[in-house]
Amino acid sequence: MAGQKKTLLKVIILGDTEVGKTSLMQQFINGKFSQQYKATIGADFLPKDMIIDDKNITMQIWDTAGQERFQSLGVAFYRGSDCCVLVYDVTNLKSFENLTSWRDEFLIQANIKDPDNFPFIIIGNKIDLEEGKRLISTKKAQALSNSLGNLPYFETSAKESVNIDQAFEVVARCALKQEEIMEFNDDYTDAVNINVDDDNYNNCAC
Amino acid sequence: MINYIIISSSGKPIYAFDNNNIIVYSAIIQSIVSYFTYSTSPNQLINSIKNNNSFINFAHYNPFILISISPINHHHNPSSLSILYNYLISLLSKPYIDKIFNKYPNFDFTKLLSNSDILTLNSICHDLSLNNNPIFNYNSLQTLPINYKIRSKINSKFNSLSTSNLLFGLITTSNFKLISILKNIQNSNHNLHISDLSILFKIISSSNNFKLNSQYITNETFWLPICLPKFNSNGHLYTLIQFVELNDSRYQQLHSISANNNTDKLLIILMSPFKDSFNELKKISNNLIKSLLFNKKIFNSIYNPLSINLPIPSSIISYTIKNTSLLQFIESPSNSSSSPLNFKNSTIIIENYSNYKLFACKLSNYEIYLKINSSTPESQLLPISKSILNYCISNNHHLFIQ
Known about the structure:
Chain B: Required for multiple vacuole delivery pathways including the cytoplasm to vacuole transport (Cvt), autophagy, pexophagy and endocytosis. The complex is a heterodimer. By secondary structure, chain A is an alpha/beta fold. Chain A has helices at about 20-30, 75-80, 95, 100-110, 140-145, 165-180, and strands at about 5-15, 45-50, 55-65, 85-90, 120-125, 155. Chain A contains six helices and six strands, in the order βαββαβααβαβα. Chain B is an alpha+beta fold. Chain B folds into three domains: about 5-130, Beta-Lactamase; about 140-305, 2-Layer Sandwich (Beta-Lactamase); about 315-400, Beta-Lactamase (2-Layer Sandwich), CATH 3.30.450.30. Chain B has eleven helices and 18 strands. Chain B has helices spanning about 20-40, 80-90, 95-105, 115-130, 135-140, 150-160, 195-205, 250-255, 280-295, 295-305, 380-400, and strands at about 5-10, 15, 50, 55-60, 65-70, 140, 170-175, 180-185, 210, 215, 220-225, 235-245, 265-270, 315-325, 330, 350, 355-365, 365-375. In chain B, strand 7 and strand 8 form a beta hairpin. The interface between A and B is large, with 48 and 68 residues.
């Protein structure tokens, strides 16, 4: 029925409050960074057009609130995602330790039927901060990524725009792969069995 | 202007009449709907939001969320969103759509919409936005006035050609004025519904599949699988669609009638639940066409339909008369299909506009809608309506299909 069209990919960004989820998205989409922290209320949504291997895609990025009080919206946000980006702050141990909980929460709330093959990406943000402040080493983060199923892992700086495009290109590729494995039967024209099926309504309208 | 937006339950855009910012709007709409679905106790569905300027109407027919955004003073057709939903179901059937979304909640439904489907959605939204489709507005079908004895002849001929594999049949003009409708007697427990036919008519009139240079193609026979959601949303009926040219000098010579452009084409619609019944239905269609074209009285009655001579003064700009028991209507040739008036609990409505008034009343089994000059005194409207009613009652068998 349909020709070549832009593929729409729903991407969710999750992680503790103040790890830089909104900054990552703003840097990726608008090329801007703001020092000022403003908590995301509920969620923010931004589109980004990309071309991946000659395919036109639009990423519908859902930047969610890290704060606990907005978590009741989880089910609404997570369902029907094509990829989930888990973000932590390399200078914040707690945000790293919570990555597994974010992942598990997502799998439950989004009702993912094949958790082993759902695409997650891990991003360690704020690598621009001075080395002494860093609490999670690359090695440690890599080990976690491997233990969760060899998840792609990137270290980024939303402030200095380091590795952002590279990370989101992998996000797009993973989401696209997830979207492309869908199989559905092209023969959609099953006939009505008039001897078995009742009409939906019995009153005659003509 | 009204905007109509359709998204999947996961917030992926499917269609928007006005496409601006649809990616962002889709996510916001999904969040609002889901907030009420999941975060309110007890769980509630959001129906509408109203502010000073606009009215936002929501419908959640899993796996789709549909919304309309209209100006606050606009005559809003309350069935708009279900009409759009029914159109989506008519393309693929409910079980097929459910199967896809149950397996893949992240499914991008735009993959299944062809350009022709988008054209039809645009056309439906255009009609709903301007309230200019009388079938949607009045939830009834327009008839072609024909002498009832001749209509009976057409009906008998149609019935005599019917086979067990033919479930429904329709003869209409190319602008969908109903001439005859056939229901298979052996399957008499199945019924056609106005909303299903309105979708079929929109598919025929708005997609390019049946046209060449904006004219309906008469030398091809089409075979279209369509799901009629109100009849049965579980599968498809196979539909033969054939247009027949009437403006042919050979018929005029044969029947010794003068050229007239009242009815230029006929439309034959035959429906079967069986995929392989095309040849059988094609034979029925051919025989039916022969009997319509080569019988002088029948041809003439369709080519030059009865004129409706309503007893109305010149101050009436246009009219629509609906037979509420048959769900059929007739209207003046110049009808501009102005916004349908909503009776709610009243039986008479008058609305004043700068150059005209709209008047509607319920009398017996009829609803009478008049567009009249502003200068017409309101005291005259009920007497005019009563004389229209008397005309309709005495000509009911010619005007409407019993």
